[in-house]
Amino acid sequence: MEDGGVLKEGFLVKRAILGVRWLGGAAPQSLPPSSHDHLLPACLSGHIVHNWKARWFVLRQNTLLYYKLEGGRKVNPPKGQILLDGCTITCPCLEYENRPLLIKLKTRTSTEYFLEACSREDRDAWAFEITGAIHAGQPGKVQQLHIQRNSFKLPPHISLHRIVDKMHDSGSGIRPSPNLEQGSTYKKTFNGSSLVDWLISNGFAANRLEAVTLASMLLEENFLNPVGARSMGAVRSGDLAEQFLDDSTALYTFAESYKKKISLREDINLSTMELSGTVIKQGYLAKQGHKRKNWKVRRFVLRKEPAFLHYYDPSKEENRPVGGFSLRGSLVSALEDNGVPTGVKGNVQGNLFKVITKDDTHYYIQASSKAERAEWIEAIKKLT
């Protein structure tokens, strides 16, 4: 299991089974072990209840290990492992509407694993490394995947009408929803990255370059409309190759359902203002709680204009922050790695940093490496 060096490691959020709600009748006398995180056999007549847990993943040449964290450190032995020999990978995976950053792994024995990254870039980096590990014994296949990732070859006969019809499909199409940009909300919109993911997932494009080109064609033929300053500014650039943005902050809508923006200036609240800034960095970090002083993995999102640092609970379905604070007038600094610093509870040490807000609230945060800690400190300092 430990053969080979570490190819990649970091936080991912993993789907796990919480239990089974039985649909009539008593539960069977014999059940699979509760420690197994994969799907229960289809023959069991019940509703499977899932939850999502942040785990520390370590990718090796033929195995993907995942660990539970306690006190900011991974707990040995591993919580589990995914054998990559004969595995298939699906990325992007759009099976969960509220979790667009998923990777799906299906093992040789048809066990399915769903792993959620903190950003599209992180998801794609993990998918690329895992795919390489799966095909490590096939150099030709690895080379082919490298070429495919950067190739550009759309089919000769493309039906944009067929693509748009599929996008409108109530079951597997794009689902527009209200989105916020710069203090204004836009109804029935979707972002550029989600459309690119959808085009790849539905087989209309082999990679992101092809998907962006297809989306640009949909814009050019007036099947889509840009919405908001980010996407409208790109269209005004005049360069067809750069008109559509593969970006989670660029909004679009179906042409026939275009609605003018609804200004929130009169009834805007603080939380809306906080979340209206531009996202400049995000990632999984461990944070010490203020009351119990226990450590939890959170997805941190750093925004500017206005400058705020928010954190989200990755186990929750709602994409709402569970906390956050303004960076105006804040202080950020690294903590010593030799021993447990003052203010930190438990035997937690290494890669720690502290943010002190203007109202003297102290936040203790742990990164996964010294390099990551330095990146976060540098990014936060620019906004204080």
UniProtKB/TrEMBL annotation:
Subcellular localization: Cell projection, Lamellipodium membrane; Cytoplasm, Cytoskeleton
Segments traversing the membrane: none
Coiled-coil intervals, chain numbering: none
Segment forming the signal sequence: none
CDD domains to which the protein is assigned, alphabetical: DEP_PLEK2 (cd04444), PH2_Pleckstrin_2 (cd13302)
Keyword Acetylation: yes
SMART domains: DEP, PH
Membrane topology term: Peripheral membrane protein
Domain DEP: residue ranges: 170-256
PROSITE patterns registered for this protein in UniProt: DEP, PH_DOMAIN
Keyword Transmembrane annotated: no
Entry's Gene Ontology BP terms: actin cytoskeleton organization; intracellular signal transduction
Cellular component, GO, one term: cytoskeleton
Keyword annotations from UniProtKB, A to Z: Acetylation, Cell membrane, Cell projection, Cytoplasm, Cytoskeleton, Membrane, Phosphoprotein, Repeat
Protein name as catalogued: Pleckstrin-2
UniProt lineage: Eukaryota, Metazoa, Chordata, Craniata, Vertebrata
